[in-house]
Amino acid sequence: MTKRIVLLVLCLAAAPAARAASAAQPSFAAFKLKPGAEGKMCLDCHPQFEDVLKKPFVHTPVRSRQCAGCHNPHASSHGKFLAAEGGAVCQKCHAGVVPAAVKSAHKPVADGKCSTCHDPHASGFKFNLVKGGNDLCASCHKQIAEDAAKAKFKHKPVADGCTSCHEPHGSAKGSDLLSADVPALCVNCHKTDRQVFVKAHMGYPVAKADCTSCHDPHGSDRRGMLFNTVHPPVAKANCAQCHEAATSPNALKTKSTSPQLCKGCHAQTLQAMMDKGWVHRPVADGSCLACHGPHAAKQKGLLRADMNQVCGKCHEDTIKRQALSPTPHEPVKNGQCTKCHDPHSSDQQLALVKADVVETCGTCHDWLKHSSHPMGEKYADPRNKNLTVQCLSCHRSHGTEYKHLIPYATQSDLCTKCHEKFRR
Amino acid sequence: MPVSRAFGKSLLLLVALAALPRAARAEGGVAFVHDATIYQDAKEGALKAPQGVACTENGNVVVADTGNQRLLMYAFKDGRIAGGTELKLTQLTRPIRVQITSKGDVLVLDGKTRKIVKVGANGQFAGTLDPKGIDDAASVVPAAFKVDGNGNVYVLDAPGRRVLLMDSSGAVSGQVAIPPEAGTITDVDVDVAGTLYAIDAVSATIWSAEKNAKTFKALTKSMKDRMSFPTYLAFSRGRLFLVDQNGNGIAIVGVDGSYQGRQLSIGWNDGLVYYPAQLCLAPELGYAFLADRYNNRVQVFSTGK
Question: Is the ipTM of this complex over 0.90?
Fold first, then answer.
């Protein structure tokens, strides 16, 4: 009886392994290979794989010489004779790497590009990764890696490995692939009831606050890993300038709301904005926090993110136009919206920072001032007597579907809008 | 081919092409056919970045010539525009939107002072339309407004995220809340049944509130694939006309939220638009007036009666 139970337990224990093995070689039997031919036959023509197989980490089907687990040896509609497209092959065995109810997913995983990070045959690194440690992540997230390496105050988990905080495939619990949302993730290490934590936060009850609204989790040059741009009251630890006292039952509540609160220090700046002819809607509405963070930020001017993201939150159509343009316009592409536009208010059309369009474009395109095409106030636009010829007479600065930022398919289409006698 | 036959064929083609917009009308659509353009005032002074235009069925047209900080009064009759008398008031530093009441008074939203300025029929400053009868009247900042045929004024209080219903003296009789998910509402209008419509320019979503409703509800899903940045909304004869500022055109949507088409496109010649702003429809006249902002003009389109 005991023997039978042991046998049953062993059978049950072996079942998942057997299932995995059969999943790895779904079509192998179909090829009716001669005994001993599995894998060996492939190596006859692909001898370079002898070296691959010597690497420390070899993919299970490769190690067991089951090439047909992923490849169809006869014909395929997919590259490299794969039995299915990209990630779909991997999914046959690794279906569970992304949680079912995913809150955030890694783009290469979502795109089925597993080989961006993994070598499907063999590698010198664990999990068949193409590079080791943080080097792999830095291949794409170069800026973060460089900033983290340069940071004066470093976050230990970054050095320990990105996977200390991030799930490489997808996370069911956190945004940005975080294994849990902030602050739940942070308080795993940073115990909020410790005196040192309480003191560092001036006694304010920040245990449930969004840590990353002030701290750069990848390290920074500011003590306490605050983002490099810090609002002066925060830098001076003067939280009570804007918030109720730390001892108050509503300690995190601000003393008033934007824009009144901001006017306390920025009254003159705000008044100067409101005195202009055009005022940006968030400014007019007093929604300073629509674009700026109140505590600390990675970006200058306490912007909540880079300009493409901040401005693109409302002006998505404009940002998209540039993304689709065959000719990139550097300031738009690089998120330097304020090179041309005043984000608060302006007396100029299109909220330009300079007095007119030619002058604005001339900031970078100096040659345009000397272009052979007549431009400026002296030259009336033949299409419209209330306009003069300027850069935007022919170009759309955020891009079009056509080359050179022009609004028509060909240059002759453009030119003959004014020079009608040359129209064919 | 004999010359006369070739000419005949060309003529036929031209007639067919000219009939296209009218054919669209016959099928129940609305076609904007360019008819005239207002480039100047009575003294041949050029318009500069006009953002507002209002009209009446008897042909009165008021232009908010924003860049020149003035109003211009025109008369439109038998397809011809005349006049262009300038009206400058110290209280109007940046007129951006304009409406004409059923009594003939002109209401103008000033973009700088964020006040609705009342201009009497004689062209005199007649005060500002300030909300009365609500506790937080001082915090109201109008971002847009409309008047209906009964003299009611609907004011979009942007920071307050609501639309205030007031009479011509400013007495507030009701308010409709704009829910947080409605994003950035840039304009509002009302139909003959009293249903309010509002447009979120960022997501290109129309919101509506039936008469006496307390809050707006989404009428459509985001129509971002149909339009870029609709900033102005006008109701006319069962349709909503959305001025797509960045997309340089007019999108037409049914009051049931159905997308019905698009008119106009980007350009500098007559009939084309460049960052259009306010639209005024006069269906009895069969015309529409559009402030063609960065083309420094107002265009008149025949829309059919």
Answer: no
